TrEMBL record:
It is found in: Membrane. Keywords: Membrane, Transmembrane, Transmembrane helix. Residues 12-148, 163-299 form the EamA domain. It holds the Pfam family EamA. It comes from Nonomuraea jabiensis. It is a multi-pass membrane protein. Belongs to the EamA transporter family. The keyword Zinc does not apply. This is Drug/metabolite transporter (DMT)-like permease. Its main location: membrane.
Amino acid sequence: MASTVTSGTRPYLLLVTTMLLWGSGFGASKVIVDHLPHSVVATLRFGGGALALLVALRLSRQPGARRRRPPLRDWARAAGAGVLGVFVYNVLFFWGLSLAPAIDGSTIVPVMSPVLTTSFLLVMGQERASVARVAGLATGAAGAVVFFVGSGGEAGAGQGRLAGDLLFLLSACCWAAFTLTGRRVLAGIDPLKATTYATVSGAVLLAIYSAPSAAEVAWSDVPAYVWLNVAFVALGPTAVANLLYYRGIRDVGPASASIMMFVVPVVGTACSALFLGESFGTVQAVGAVVLLVGAVLAVTQGRLPVRRGN
């Protein structure tokens, strides 16, 4: 019985760790974006993450074991996921982070991602459209509208914050699609290899995209604490967190894994408030609460998913 409980709860413990790392990564990334172009920050984060994963992949090989290369199809799937979940997602996300506070991103991306994932599953007929789920989606949509209205009306923010929040929304769409492709990617390849191939492919594209901006950076003027944040986001919220998330998708499925995203706004909001002094306006705060309530109802239908045994 104990082993059954452990095997059943372990994937969720790993996913909670993922969400804690992701939540703390919003504030750390904002610190870096304040000193470097957003495209360069994305490259540093995922380039560093790719190197860490390549080292981990190398160390994971058993001594004397025969090296088995995955079929080209499996590699291509993982690389394609990296284009969507690493390159496109991060171009949008870090662009948004350069315009809006980290506290906005820590609410929009992790809350809207599971809502969009659930919506896609409903459209594709893979989830049941219950009354609770439809009511949750409607409530979440209303909360999102209120949140974005608050972004545009925030005193002194101009339209920059609203534009940043819309970019966060687009990045949430990318992450939802990335989550839905996860199980297919993992069908013929283990999570470490899939995560590594996806991160490397996305990081290469980010490097090409950011090259013109990187050439203009005065690297000697970058403060030491910025480099500490770069190291943290590359290792924790990128290499480790993405690997654990892929494992979570494999073990509990995309719908259940996406539910755990609701831990991120709590952690992200706390970090942004404590370390960056950021806060919501009144209208945004109301919208965030309504959005979160609707999202939880839509994804869970008022109950936590139960993983069936094989």
